Amino acid sequence: MQLNKIYAKTAKGLEEIQTRIHKLPANLRRLLIMVDGHSTAAEMINRLTTLGEVELALDQLATGGFIAVPASKSAAPDPAAPPAPPEFDLDQAKSLIHSILLAAMGPTAAHRIECVEATTTPEQLRIELEVIRDILSKVLSQSQAEQVWQQLAPIMPPLEQPASIPTQSTTPVATAVPTFNLDKAKGFIRSILLGAMGPTAARRIERIEATTTPEHLRVELDAIRDMLPKVISKRQAEQTWRQLEPIMISLGAPAPAPDAKTSASAPVPVVPHTYIGP
User: Fold this and answer.
1) Are residue 63 and residue 96 in the same domain, yes or no?
2) Residue 27 sits in the same domain as residue 57
């Protein structure tokens, strides 16, 4: 392993964080979460001494294809590199958040970093940053929390502009309806519950993992919604449910009863909103 090189998570590494599909041992998974794409291997070895044989573990992650040295990353920045594109870079934002939280909170930031890594859209990342803003004042001093948030605030994704109303088209365009990805939905729920409840979420996560249909998952989410205010504060429960609610919505709600004025006419089929997964 080249200690002066900067390592970043590969697609396989991100997949493992979100879904645990490769079943990494706990020590390797914790280290994988800490790989931020900015620190050299030597810096990580010096900083993460509490994680044991970091150099050996990094080598195992690299050999397994979970981390790699990106072609555009090196220990020294390339002055001739082209400027970053103007659009929001989700991966770069998550990497910066990773570094800031790790510097401010150390290994205790692992759960929250995992939630950040699990986000797949700027909107999800915005929600997660709002949760982090509330958490900082509870785990750090007021001055520290303010300093950390000053670093995080510029990363907050901009609010998306509402889509303009499309002009009426004379030729209808058929749109493929994506299928609900149950495994990815369960992985996302697991990350949210771990971030909110820590190890005490284990039993509820087991029930989520045991679901085999979207309908079964909806029942479990209903139970979680009722359970949250009983095990965490009301504010935390609301924040956690705000992250889970999009999944519930994507599962589809029962269709409303038809209106008497329209029941005589031919019914219009409604395509339910589907959740593709993070």
Assistant:
1) no
2) yes
Q: Is residue 45 part of a domain?
A: yes
**Which range marks the domain in which residue 29 is found?**
8-68
- Tell me the whole-structure pTM to 2 decimals: 0.35
User: For the chain, what is the mean pLDDT?
Assistant: 77
Distance CA 225, CA 221 (A): 6
CA distance 205 to 16: 17
Beta strand pairing status for 8-9 and 67-68?
antiparallel
Over pLDDT 70: what percentage of the chain? Answer: 76
How wide is the angle at C-alpha 127 spanned by C-alphas 234 and 194, nearest 5°?
A: 65
- CA 90 to CA 98: how far, in whole Å? 12
What is the Cα–Cα distance from 29 to 33, expressed in whole angstroms? Answer: 6
Give the integer Cα–Cα distance in Å for 257 and 14: 43
Provide the domain count of the chain: 3
Q: Are 35 and 8 in contact (CB under 8 A)?
A: yes
What three-state secondary structure class fits 67?
strand
- CA pair distance 201, 190, nearest whole angstrom: 8
133-158 pLDDT, tens digit per residue, is 888 888 888 899 899 999 998 888 76
Structural domain contains residue 30 = yes
Q: Say if 98 falls within a structural domain.
A: yes
